[in-house]
Design a protein that fits this description.
homohexamer, 15 strands, alpha/beta, nine-stranded mixed beta sheet, kinase (chains A, B, C, D, E, F), transferase (chains A, B, C, D, E, F), Sugar kinase (chains A, B, C, D, E, F)
Chain lengths: 340, 340, 340, 340, 340, 340
């Protein structure tokens, strides 16, 4: 059991039921999610001591977000109360040729307006083994780039491992801004996670021979990306998720874990999707679990990809699967026979 | 049929189903509402040519708000598209001794950030008979006080009647701010609408002998308030809603219409509440319909109070009743016998 | 256990959820109901051998109606398949001062177009103790008046008791038509059931001193009505339901049973209504159960009124209560304490 | 922006939730739809000035149908109020080897009983560019064949383009009746739309080498059908939808547009279906938009097929997609990647 | 029409909506099901006179189970009331690589604790043509093995055909226990039904060349299994279902019917699954219908497999399809085209 | 902030939606509840460090129960995993004259079968201020009476205050059994809580002049009961809830707190009920909070009654109100005005 601290934004997620479009929705399903919160829930579900740190408004909606984490055993003691509002995002689930759609309404949230003094990183990292954040958090702007830097420095000083999912969000900042800020944070990062596009968007590192719109993927290209990231920033591990979008309903899904010039690729799953939002985060959650428990490189990427494969079959962002379920799939049991 | 222009904010309203508290809600019912939009829908339902003017973000959520108005026949051609977001508010329905709760998340909305040049009042008021706004709109801040003044001046210059519901919102501004801004707008207002507390909160005009928390209401006190408002600002009509809160489930409801020193009181209804949010707005909608159609003073207040009594029996903010239904109740048919 | 045959129409009932108005409804709750079908279900729930006879279209919707009866143990073997459609009616639940609303869409239904030869009454009444129909069935028109006459004659010839609920529906026929047709059927009727208005609407027999809109009810007036009905048509029993509509939410409810010049009044219940549609039918169901089991006159009216009081607390038309539950209430246990 | 008038029936559509069968349904989702109303909504969604003309009962259900159109901006001013009822149809969604099922309950609707004098076509077509109807409307019987002829003649006389979707419904009329009536209307039609079977059912024109039950489709056969239709009736365009039913869940979907001896085929989409009802209508909506905006023949069929491909991913009949979304898919973006 | 008696347990089935996991469920869909009850409903739906025999608690939940059977016309007169509780089982629907999950909470149910004297088999089998039970019933323990033996002996003595689905449940008993008990019952069985694993689990009879986890199936292996079962116990027919689990969403499905050394295989269906629980039972229901109506061997297996293929497209356990629907699919109509 | 340990059973609660009866329910709302768990949640909501101790099956349903507690911040670290099943109870909400109905299905649950060695009370009470249990726990039988005694002895030895709600359940044990077991536990109890009937049912101590079925309540009678309980067992406090059942919808609600011969009565609330199950537990939760925080006797009973008054307005068992909300009502703010 590892003690992992995740830091970032948690939002209210609102989505119409089933495949209804926004303009048809008389109801929204409400859940709570965020890139780092999703990782914290994954880790708690695998039996780790996962803590989530953020700033939330001191009202019932902020409390709802806290409760959503507490129910899965995530430690929320480090969450600061205050500020104006809980960020919200709206998800419309796509199907077949119709893409899913996300509308963010996160500007002006309590965490976006947080101050450096809101967080006592020395105390937060007491007893911690691992610190995880994503590129979304500094992208929230305000003092968040500096807060992330504070966190990284403190973590490093205490021997806490650091993972970061690049998670580029073009609606939050430009590639230029991202490259500059992330470039300052990356030297602290031990494990760098990225999807097919992030390295290109943030650092201009392109996978040769790959076109994400056609689903054409070149293994060699991604090895090159990982090598470049690893060399430029000194990361111990670079992990990349490989999504092949056949349609909004069917995706291919795999991953690669690079270390010391060696790349391990997972098996590729063909997934009939229930809800793909949070898929990347669940990969991060699986990877941190695997690496913090000393898995071999191939086992680690297999675990992370199996975990995130399962996430695609689960509604809402949180990956509500156990370690045993992930291991069963990673071990090859993909037939989906009923468990009685 | 009168042509009425309403101007203000329309928001997404989210409420848990039934009597669930926020912390129990896995779903929110989504509807669209706002003080002036509610009036526009009331008026369209009575057969008027009602237009609603606002600024909405150019995304699916803004479109949802427009569609919610269009379905009832409200003219939305004057709505400006742009700006960052749709305001949201959350409603938790109370019951018995537990009060209803409203959480506003409206800061930074497209209308709050609107500019004077967004609205061409000359064009908007073409052919219009009536202009309605409430104290909420200037309270949104930014250029909205000035925009309201622009609208009032143009309306006045075109002979368009003006009604204003004071609608004080203490989370939007202070009594001092409200008094100053509303004091500048009131001289243009022909019909002033207020609830039991507004006149005191905005202009420091108190109803003697009344305590809204105990439900004790003095008719004389409200006549005094109306007289004072009428004299200070030259309003032709002053209308006041009189709510007696027995509990969150049962309310007494009545109203007064003052003109030229004469006050008419409606009958008082004892209401078993389905949803009381929008109750005051539905009073305004009924009153404007009555006055713009030349109702006698007593008939007008009776219509407005019957209309708003019915609103309390309807889910969400919009008052979805016809003129015939209001007239039936105003005419004394309150037994609720099944209409086959 | 009595064997009771009920004959009439069963329709699909569609109502918006909760207190939503028709114009707000994106969903309808679907159930199946009809004046005589409701009685059959009541009787089956009390342990009787209840049969329902009608004509239904030979499609899935007709089957749904049959299944809804079968689930409560009603014998549907006598239902004829054929004809064009299942009748439908839409219910909008009122609240407080807003009345409930019913829209019928029953024209052209299979039963409305049924033929005399569709029903073999000799076979249907084999072993039967009781036959029940209401004024709605002949009001459906076509051959239905004659079919009802066929049924009454056969029942009479076999010594089967006959009850009829006058149930005047002004959207189906005029008072003149009703008076003529019902006047021919009534001589066969042993037990005549009516609400406050039926006797006046159908036969011009008015309860003196009563105004159903104000809720003012004169006991003497209803005794007079019963006496007149009894004398004019030779009914053994005349039963009248007495509804005092305080609002769409709160009703007073009582009943009277008249026989041989003697009138017994039930206690009056003050009901907080869940769903009042089917209330009158549940009175009929209770009464037939009581009379066919030899209850004393006072006990019979008490049972019928307690049964129908309970119906008002149950969603949809069918009165889903057991004999024990009715007896408990009729016995005075009205406190509603939890039964663990 | 084209001004398009659509004429036909709009019904209430009731379907059980998800994949429930009729006999399992305790709830029905209620929406409003009809072959021509669906086209009107498509066109309004693409930014056109779409009007829908019909006759509806003057009750809340008729109003619901109007509201469903108004919310998407369809002009409903030309709808006539009156007549007995709103048509209804029930949809049970199929899956895999289980076909979807439709039960129509549309007989005796207000539009089926409409009179020629109900519609003032001169006024309706003021300023119009296009008139659309389908073979369903004359199939409703009564005066509808003549009303359609009135409309066609007036449209023609005013230079309004006319499109007609053959839309044969064997439950409404026979092939003989259809052939006779449609044969009189077709000479006015500029754009004829048909699915794989319509031409055979209505006019006995068969596609050689094709068996719709096996999914075997011969391109040459459909070119022959279009040529024959074009020559026989003088249509400028003939469009045919080509559905390959793999199962109730997975369909292949494509289309052909024929003009002057030249046939353009769209790409074929493999669709994982959300709701296929309304698929053909959405093809018509896309085609009218494309042709009325001067698209090239290949672009037009591509737009129409992409539009209707997307419809299959949307619940209920209306095709709630924007021009931009259709163009994105028509432009080749079929991977369904999340749009953030 | 055959008269078939089914004997076993009926439980409340609770499943979260859609693809929600147990830990996400704030609601459970409630239905009623059981291996033999499912067969009874299938048979009633095909028009047979199906009776279900069990013991149920004398409370509202037992009544719910009875009502669920009665609605489809199953004769429940033979159900004994008494004992402590209704068994429950919870189903979580899987998707793609995530398997479905079943949690049984059936211990201590009224049927598990039933006594031999509860059932008067002589009376139960009056007029019966067929008796069906499964291996689950004796596995419930207590006196159930003996009760099954009583039933078999009585049935045999009356010339009633007996079918048994081995249905091994490892949570109820061990292979050793099953082998011993079933070994005593099998000599009475005319038609033995098994899935891919049952014969191995219960009697140690393995299908050579088959691995159910990889989906690899050897036809020869299953013929060997059937031959062995037939010879060991003297069954007239042995039927085996053949499931190929591609994923929790997509399965291949076929079956084999063996008689007198001759094996007939059905076509194989590729099924996109709606709900696969009850799939095996629906095979039994189809097979009994076919064999009791004198179908040829190939027709019988085709009917049984088509019936159970359709079950996979229907929510909950009961197979709600008609004989016509099964015949249509068995006849080759698998394209799922809409039936209007 | 007090640290309070609660011990007992937590069950799955299943109730039909709204006012549906069991026989109408196609869905059950699932929540988790139990006499002592409800108290733990109350206390956590008031900001205390509340822990809940029980034994739960090691499956997803047990986990659901844990999650339901964790979401509100209850410490579940002391919960033991193992045993066969989670207890269940079914609730049917009554209305007006129809009582609510509870069906327990709790026999054989993991906690009912727990062993003394499952619980290490020395460790559980580390740092604890208060221990709470109810009469339900020993009534579960098996070793539970002895486990409760173990807990009481350890608590006493560590200076932990002990409260017990008598909570007699006639379906779990007889008055004789209860009297014997509770008589052994009561000497350890500092704060004894009872409803109107418990003292009579468990110890034969009757309130003179009171009839709970008629709602007639004698204050003197309850003072006598409290005096007797206090003297017989040496309790410091005796608290009694006083419910006046007007109907299933409307109740009067008050309470009394007795100490040293002095009885304080709270104000009486007239409650329009949303859900009354858990009402008594919420009284206990309020009382423990008040007494553990040193409230005066009158303030304590006022807090406890206000807290439990609010519970009646909240769906499901848990009392989801904050200390501020309770204080507001206890302070006299009962008008239910909207909180914006």
């Amino acid at each position: 059991m590892a003690k992992v601290v995740c830091f970032g934004e948690i939002m209210m997620r609102l989505n119409p039921e089933g495949y209804l479009r926004f303009v048809q929705a008389g109801n929204f399903e409400a859940s709570y999610a965020g890139g780092e919160a999703n990782v914290a829930v994954s880790l708690a579900n695998y039996g780790n001591d996962a803590a989530f740190v953020t700033k939330l408004p001191d009202n019932d909606l902020g409390q709802c977000a806290i409760n959503s984490l507490r129910q899965f055993g995530v430690d929320t003691a480090g969450i600061v109360k205050g500020g104006p509002r809980l960020g919200i995002y709206f998800v419309e689930k796509g199907a077949s040729q119709r893409p899913s759609k996300v509308i963010y309404d996160r500007a002006g949230s309590s965490i976006a307006l947080a101050k450096r003094e809101d967080f006592d990183w020395d105390k937060i990292f007491e007893g911690a083994d691992w610190f995880h954040f994503t590129g979304i958090t500094p992208a929230l702007g305000g003092e968040n780039p500096q807060i992330c830097l504070d966190a990284c420095k403190t973590a490093k000083s205490k021997g806490v491992k650091i993972s970061c999912d690049l998670n580029f969000r073009k609606k939050l900042w430009t590639s230029e801004q991202a490259g500059k800020v992330m470039g300052e944070l990356m030297p602290y990062v031990d494990v760098c996670i990225a999807n097919e596009e992030d390295a290109a968007d943030v650092f201009g590192i392109h996978a040769e021979g790959t076109d994400i719109n056609t689903g054409k993927i070149s293994r060699e290209g991604y090895i090159g990306v990982a090598k470049e990231l690893s060399e430029r920033f000194g990361c111990e591990y670079v992990a990349v998720t490989l999504r092949g979008s056949i349609s909004a309903t069917d995706n291919k899904w795999a991953g690669m874990l690079y270390k010391d010039g060696q790349a391990c690729f997972s098996p590729e799953y063909l997934i009939h999707i229930v809800d793909r939002v949070g898929g990347g985060d669940s990969f991060g959650g699986g990877l941190i679990h695997a690496l913090s428990h000393g898995y071999e490189q191939q086992d680690a990427i297999n675990y992370a990809v199996a975990a995130s494969c399962l996430k695609h079959t689960i509604e809402h962002d949180y990956n509500l699967v156990s370690e045993a379920e992930v291991k069963s799939l990673a071990g090859g049991n993909a037939s989906g026979r009923v468990q009685r």
